[in-house]
Structures are given as C-alpha cells and as structure tokens.
Amino acid sequence: MKVKIGTRKSKLALWQANYVKEFLERTWGVEVELVKITTTGDKITDVPLAKIGGKGLFVKEIEKALMDGEIDLAVHSLKDVPMVLPEGLTLGAITKREFPYDVLISNSGKKLRELPEGSKVGTSSLRRQVQIKRLRRDLKVEVLRGNVDTRMRKLKEGQYDAIVLAYAGVKRMGYESEITEVLDYFIPAVGQGSLAIEIRENDERIKKLIEPLNHEESYIAATCERAFLRELEGGCQVPIGAFAQVVDGKVRIKGFISDLEAERFIEDASEGGIENPEAVGKELARKLLAKGGKEILEEIYSSQ
Fold first, then answer.
1. pLDDT value of residue 243
2. Which pLDDT value is given to residue 145?
3. What is the CA radius of gyration of the chain?
4. For the residues 147-165, what does the mean pLDDT come to?
C-alpha cells in the first residue's frame, strides 16, 4: 500500500521530503508518493512573516490534508511547526538535528563584525534582526523573504551586502562553500536544523514506519525548546530564540527574549534531567518572564 507524504513545493521542502521518502523505501520497501501542497506562506512572499502571523503559515494546508486522509504523513522544518498541534495530530519523529546555527554570507567576504558601516544585511527573522542590531547598530537590517535560491540571487544582484540564513538550509541547497561566517554566537530558532514528521495520532502503521527516523537526543532538545516557546506564548511577532542540547545525561537550554530594537535583551539558561525536558524549557521561560520578558511581550502585543 502506497505511503503519501505531504510537502511544500519549494526546493528545500522537496529535499526534506525526498530524504524521508528514500529512507522509507530503502528501509521498508514501500512505495512512496510525494503530494505537493501550496501553503499560505508560499503565496504571500512580499510581506514580513511577523506581519502575517508567522507560525502555521507553512503547515496549515498540509495539516488539513493529513486530517482529511489525503496524505499519510507530513514533513516540515521543525521551526515552522506551531507549538500547539491540531487535535488528532502528533509529531511522530524528529530527525537528527543538522548543525543548528545561522550563517552569514557576504558579497565582500567580510564577517559580521567587519562589514562597513551602513551595509545592508537581509533577513526576515526578528530573532536574527535583534541579534545583528545588538552587535552592530550601524548596519541597515532589511527584510528578505523567499527561498534559499531567491535570497542568494538577491545577494548576488547587490540588493544586499550580506544575508543571514540557517546553515541547514544552505547546506541542503548546496551553498555551503559560499558561507562567510558561522554565527555560532547567535541563539538559533526553536527547532532549527531538525525535520518534524507529523502523523495522525491513531495511525499505528505509519508510526511504526517512521519510528527509526526519530533521533532521541534531537527529540529531547526539541521538546525542551518547544515547551519554552509554548510557555512564553511567543509567535513570529516577538524576537525569541532558544537552543537545547543533551550534555552528560542532562538537557541544557539557553534562550532569550528581546524588544524589537534589542535595547532590552534578556537571556538566561536552565538545565535538568532528560526524563522531563518540558519542565526544563518551562523553567527557562519563567525565568525570562520574571526578568522583564513579560513586559516586553505585553508591549509588543499591545502595539499590534
């Protein structure tokens, strides 16, 4: 019986879906078909994600197809998946996390600290914007949407002096040799670098097929980061980042929340047992809220 995978149509999304397709065919000998679905986020390409609600824009239509039985599973970038899933759906597997950091690609070959004053840096993410501003208030941080190929083309055309992207997407699209600097001093997006495989909760057949794709440490880290973000109730309209790792049998998470100008940038860390990663993520969220994060969230949401 054929297995149908729901995916967006972008090159990166298809790379991700094919990765899962090839694994299922190789491991189980099943026939797999990709079902390409256009999402709201794909249709609206000229507006910053923060202005149109962000989370869920790249998954809603795919989730509907999953609930309606038109597909058997969905492959997403984990960072696109909302913190609360529709009833009846679950994340059946989180793949082994790719290197999770952001990277800078510049036309001049200069790193972020070396770019000339007034250089234009492109990114669509508020999380990246505030971390750039914090380091270099003299740069012009401008909105950049589009898939990896589009962003690279806009850079080469000189519309930007440098752009910031996720390493995982850059590598998967074959642009690794173009990287000027790995921004490992930036805190990544929740889930950045991992793929999420979403399934129907009661579908035991599909659950069994995708089980070997789940990477335990990546799953624990993702659970911790997503609990952190869920506790903050943060969407794409707020600059928030978090990064969890399993180290010496414990889960450690660092994270931040910032106002839009990076004038109040609150960061902290927590750690605890891997048996309850959600509790560790929630603890960090509460720390940040108590240190002034609550006021930042209220101000940002009341101004929208």
1. 98
2. 85
3. 19
4. 96
